[in-house]
Amino acid sequence: MDFGWLKRVLPRGLYGRAALILLVPVVTLQIVVSGQILQRYFRDVAAQMTTALVLDLDLLRSRMAEGEPVEALAEALEIGIAPAPDGTLTDRRLFYDLTGAEAIRVLHRDLPGLIAVDLVSDERFPAVILRAGDEIVSLSVSRRRLSASNPHQLLVLMVFFGLFMTWVAYIFLRNQLKPIRRLAEASEAFGKGQLIEYNPSGATEVRSAGRAFLDMRGRIEAMIDQRTLMLSGVSHDLRTPLTRMKLGLSMLEAEPEVTALMRDVEEMEALLETFLDFARGEALDDPTPTDPVALARQIVEDAGRIGGEIALVAPERSGRILLRPQAVRRCLSNLVSNALRYGEKARLTVVLSDRAIRFTVEDDGPGIPPERRAEALKPFARLDAARNQDKGSGVGLGLAIARDIAQRHGGSLSLTESAEMGGLRVDLVLPR
């Protein structure tokens, strides 16, 4: 049996599911208990009381059928006598009057000459219409003699106290769920590169999970700091000998070998800058209100000044949204640089929605095969067979830097094929 529809209608949040777990047993218990009490207790009580009333009604009916005066007897039995009403005589009761239905059943079963029972016209004094000899009379009796009075009070009390206890339980449940929610918020913020204050609280299991999260966060931060320090130190220390080599080569005569060595030194300096960018990728700037279209336009202008042919597709106005401008600039600059390195033309597209912003960089280069796109996002991955190396080789950190920045923003970076330009398409999606 397929229960997929049940998963679609059930609440997805923790509060909703907890409330459902709380309410379903309470409501089910109320329905079962009230149903059993109404069906057994009140029904049996109504049957017994109606059976006792039948004896009085039958005595009065038999005296009336014999022609004897019954006024004194009716007064003693607290039964009113009136002519039968006009019209069709049928049983009448309210749909929720369950004990009334049992009283009508017993009256029809045990009282001779009964025609109809009216429990609607006067709820306090129902009318029992019967044939006494040659005439039809209406005998009015107190409803208290037919069934227990106010059986609905039980339902009212059950509903009231059920709602009250549900509210009390919800208060306690909310206090238990609040630490879980705080842990989820701290975890989500850490995944986006933000550090918010968090102290474990709540039940023992939640405290254990919170302490484990803090330990994990501390280890990850220490590992990131160590990696950043190592890459920055190595890259910085290599600058000094490279500078001396470059200075020494510049003092030599312009021989072909000297020119080749100078080109190698410049390439090594470019690689060091890439290493530093990768190390700085973990050190994101603070979020500030930023115009994403203006940021993209500036990146396109910078690429155009160095000879790159890149087009910008973006709305005229976008407003300011909360971004880390330096990190996003570094990410998009790497993507645009890769697009212009491996293709002749590139295009940067900005698309805004209510929940996210998407930057798309496309080129007309050879692209990356689908089976190697996951490998291309790894650090130091160089797909020589897939990408054109005629325009200079890299160290394989451009896409890795972009992916790390996207993940630290809580976003994503995906590689596909450009349908219009034929090369690689990179989608950078950041939540707003």
Structure in a nutshell:
This protein has helices at 4-9, 14-65, 71-77, 98-110, 152-191, 204-250, 256-280, 292-305, 325-342, 373-376, 398-408, and strands spanning 80-83, 114-118, 127-132, 135-140, 288-290, 309-313, 321-323, 345-352, 356-363, 412-417, 424-431. With 432 residues, the chain is an alpha+beta fold. It has 3 domains: 14-149, Beta-Lactamase; 187-283, Orthogonal Bundle (Helix Hairpins); 285-431, 2-Layer Sandwich (Heat Shock Protein 90).
SSE layout and pairings?
Layout: H1 4-9, H2 14-65, H3 71-77, E1 80-83, H4 98-110, E2 114-118, E3 127-132, E4 135-140, H5 152-191, H6 204-250, H7 256-280, E5 288-290, H8 292-305, E6 309-313, E7 321-323, H9 325-342, E8 345-352, E9 356-363, H10 373-376, H11 398-408, E10 412-417, E11 424-431
Parallel strand pairs: 6-8
Antiparallel strand pairs: 1-4, 2-3, 3-4, 5-7, 8-9, 9-11, 10-11
